[in-house]
Amino acid sequence: MTVTKVRVNKRAFRELRKSAALQAKLLEVGEVVAQDANLDHQVTADVAQNGPVDDGPSYKADLHVGKNRARVSVVTATGRAIGPERRTSSLLRAAARR
After folding, report:
1. What is the sign of the dihedral through the CA atoms of 78, 81, 85 and 91?
2. Count of other CB atoms within 10 angstroms of residue 35
3. How confident is the model at residue 50 (pLDDT cuts 50, 70, 90)?
4. What is the pTM of this model?
């Protein structure tokens, strides 16, 4: 059996994980998940009790570039979305569909 040695160029790998192309793709995926969660929130919102959802998007995607990599977070954007998110897990379901 032959052993193959692989040497990873850590600096190049770090630069790749922080590249502009990867940041654009991460933000695109985050925006899709946020839009899906927003649609789900509008459908499951308790309109009879709280009125229509018209205070802007309930979820937003944020891109963060750290020391080693870029990452995207999708979070609730309004206080009104926190309760329904806790009950219905709209964000988790939107991420799973993606």
Report:
1. negative
2. 15
3. low
4. 0.78
